[in-house]
Every structure is written in structure tokens, then in C-alpha cells.
Amino acid sequence: MASSYMPRLYQLRGVSSALKRVHLPCTHRATPCLNKRFASTEPEPIATITKKNKKSPLRKFIFRSSIAFVLFGGYLYFTDTRASAHRYIAVPIIRWLFPDAEDAHHAGVAALRELYKFGLHFRERSSPDLGGKLATQVFGYTLSNPIGISGGLDKHAEIPDPLFALGAAVVEVGGTTPLPQDGNPKPRVFRIVSQSGMINRYGLNSKGADHMAKVLKQRVREFAYANGYGYSDAGEERVLNGEAGVPPGSLNEGKLLAVQVAKNKVTPESDIAAVTRDYVYCVDRVAPYADIVVVNVSSPNTPGLRGLQAAGPLTEILKGVVGAAKRIDRKTKPFVMVKVSPDEDSEEQVDGICHAVRESGVDGVIVGNTTNRRPEPLPYRYPLSSKEEQTMTETGGYSGPQLFERTVALVSRYKQKLSDAGSQKTIFASGGITNGKQAQAVLDAGASVAMMYTAITFGGIGTVTRVKNELRQERSL
Ligand SMILES: Cc1cc2nc3c(=O)[nH]c(=O)nc-3n(C[C@H](O)[C@H](O)[C@H](O)COP(=O)(O)O)c2cc1C
After folding, report:
1. Boundaries of CATH 3.20.20.70 in the chain?
2. Which coenzyme or cofactor does it need (predicted)?
């Protein structure tokens, strides 16, 4: 009975599991047989199976090479920003895995950070900027392209390099505040999927300017070490003073790093001297590692912050920041921009901001930020689901494609007003940009850089590459 049962068992469960489960006949054991019951068992079934399972070296080689080839091909595909799987597979999966948009944000940042550490990060494998077709001049630098990533996506400066690798020529990290602060209670970020839009009321959650300065300093040190300047104060100084031939903030040729600064929620907005001290504190810490310092007076989620855009207070704050940026101990000083709201758009308000920009010596304006308004759905009269109708009533700043028309109009107005007065100020556009045609439109309206945030969360890590491709097509029409 035992001998007729054994071969079937081997075939069914495989040799190794069978070895564990039944007493083996002695003929198949390396050690002498102690089991008298199997002493006379026939060897034939094992021999047959061993023969079957044994692969020739050539077959083994082909099998292993095929696996290696598939893995390597998969790696090349998934880390290439041109892969449409990011947009059509990864983004929906992330939304499904993380119903809370903030959790998805954290997971995305962690993934970008960790993959970069191991050199497995997403990147532009086609080097689309090499032809120079999208090259543009900003603050005396030749940027490889005019596309940027807006503030808030990398709040704690954890992933500037992975974001540069996605193809952006400008990456804005922050905003950071002098003291760490938690921001508003969760949930505080909401998706309106049918509109590819978002509402957020993060409330400038920040680990604080000292923390951000530490992270950025470490990044410069690692760069200095990797490029032969040593892991020391002297090495850091040499890189920051431009000896490495790259901008001191981005550490990437043809790219610029903007660092955004803001005030703490607890600092009373009525005390302009205290508010100015908040911004200056941040500038003193982080500006040595920035190509551009961005002053955030336009987040809708810090009570009273937007009130600081009135001409008087804004002039004082910006003067303080410009002074602090000029005092930075570095050969080239960081440029200063102010990020303004799309909602403070009356003639008087825009005039007031332009006045403050000219008076203070600020170098440029980022137009704009999220809106407190709730724009009409797109396409016109699109019926939102009742759940999305409900989401639209959440408090916070709205972002997404519906902002675009307002952004173009506002960029034109700022351009005109700032040029009228004879001051050449640089403008970056932020708000609702999702494709190359729109990027070209804001550039035509007077912006030097078209920045994106929400489009990346809905379009995935290939968004910058796609928009640049579309931009190139626009230009060759
Ligand atoms: C979740 C989220 C967080 C943001 N955080 C910041 C921030 O910390 N500082 C800031 O100036 N803007 C912040 N923004 C605004 C964006 O930088 C951008 O100006 C705005 O979303 C409009 O552009 P978009 O339509 O391309 O998203 C945030 C936007 C979103 C959606």
C-alpha cells in the first residue's frame, strides 16, 4: 500500500514537502536508512521526478535572464516619467488605497524620498531639456525649461531633488514658519475628483525654520562631499559660493530652488513688527540654501494672513525680508518674491501690492494661490454628485483647473502694472495650470515660469514631462 501511495504523493506535493511529511525510503536518503518499513521500497518514482525537475544549465540561464530582463525592463518603464501607467494606473490606485488625500500626500512624499535614496527614483530618461527649446532666462540664470512645482507639495524640504528629477526647473519648498506648528485638525485636504480639484486647509503645518535649515544644510554637505569639496564647513561654503558651477539653492544646473517662508499662526497679524520678525527669522535660517525666497502672505488658512497684503504692512514686511536676504553671508544673494492671493484682485488691492513690491525692492511676484471662492464646475454646468457638492462646502482654499482663467487674467494685470511703473519684476504663475497650452498662455501673459501643484496630484509623477512635451508642440505649431 505504501509503495503505490508514495509516487502520487511526491508528484502532488513536490519533493521537498513530501520529504518533510513522510518517512523516506532509504534508497533516496544520504544518511543510512533507519526505517525498516521502507527498506525495500523501489527507487523508480523519485528518479523519474528528479529527472523531470532537473533543468539543464542552459535552461536555467535562459530562465534567470528572462526574469532579470523583465525586472529591469519594468524598472526602466516605471521609473520613466513618460510612462502613462503613472497617470492611468498609479494615481487611481493611490486614491483607492488612501481615501484621505493627506495620507496619499504623505505616502507619495515618502515613496519619492526613499526611492531617491536608493537611486531608484522616477526621472526623465529622455533628457527632453537637452535641445534647449524650452530654455528661458530667469534672474540672470538660463533655466532648462519654464515649468515649476508650487509651494506646499514639499512642505518640509524632504524631496527637492526627486522633484527636480521629475523635470521641473523651479521647485518651491515650504512654507516654513519660525516655530514648528501643527496646522489645522484633520481631515484638512479634500479631493473633488470629477473636477480634478482640491480644497485644503492645512494651515501651514511646519516643522519650523530651524528644522528646514538643518535638512537643507545636510543636502548641501552631501553634495559638497560627493563632488570632492569635503564634508565640512569649508566644503559647504565653497558650494554655496558657487565654486561647483551650479546655483547654490538647487545644486542643479539650469534649475532654481525656491524656499517659502511664512509667519506663525500665534503671531498677531496686527503687530507688523512681530510679523516681520517672523519672516526675517525664517530668512536668516533658510535663505543661505535658497536661490529664491518666497514670502507667503496669501494662504487662506492662516487667519489674518491675507490682510498683510495691504500696501502699508506688506511694504514693511517685504523691506524686512529683502534686507535680511541681502545680509546672507553668500557671494550671490537669494532673490525675493512675494506670493499673492487670487482673491484680493480689486484695482486698489492689486495697485497696493504692486506699490509694496516696488517700494521694498522685491524681485518678483508669484500670482497666485488657492482661492476662497468656489468656482463653477467644468465643463460648464457639470452636475457634481451630492458628495462632491458637500465637499465643496468645506472650509479652505480651492485649487485646480477652474483657477486657470483667473490666473491668466491676473498675471496680465500684474505684468502690466509692474512694467508701467518702469520696474521690471519677474512673475511666476500658479493656479489651475494643467497642460502645455495653458502653460504657454501664462507665459504669453507675462509669466516667466508656470507652476503646478494640483495637476500633479491628479496627473501623477509624469505631469511635468507631459506639460513640457505639450509646450514644445505648442511652440512648433
Ligand atoms: C494641499 C495643498 C497644500 C498647499 N500648501 C501651500 C503652501 O504651504 N504654501 C503656499 O504658498 N501654497 C500652498 N498651496 C497652493 C499651491 O502652491 C498653488 O499655489 C495652488 O494650489 C494653485 O495652483 P494649482 O491649481 O496648480 O494647484 C497648496 C495647495 C494645495 C492643494
Report:
1. 132-476
2. FMN
In angstroms, the CA 74 to CA 52 distance is 31
Series of mean pLDDT values for 10-residue runs along the chain (477 residues): 40 41 42 45 56 76 94 93 95 97 98 97 92 95 98 98 98 98 98 98 98 98 97 96 98 98 96 97 98 95 89 96 98 98 95 95 97 94 95 97 98 94 89 98 98 98 98 89
Q: Is 250 a catalytic residue?
A: no
Whether the upstream peptide bond of residue 148 has omega within 30° of 0, thus cis, is: no
**Residue 305 DSSP class:** G
The three three-digit cell numbers of residue 432, written as one number = 489651475
Fold of the CATH domain 132-476: TIM Barrel (3.20.20)
Write out residues with Cβ below 6 Å of ligand 1: 150-152, 155, 175, 189, 198, 200, 202, 204, 260, 296, 299, 339, 369-370, 399-400, 403, 430-433, 452-455
Distance 150 CA to ligand 1 centre (A): 6
Catalytic: which of 196, 298, 299, 360? 299
Q: In 3D, which of 350, 392, 348 has the Cα closest to residue 371?
A: 392
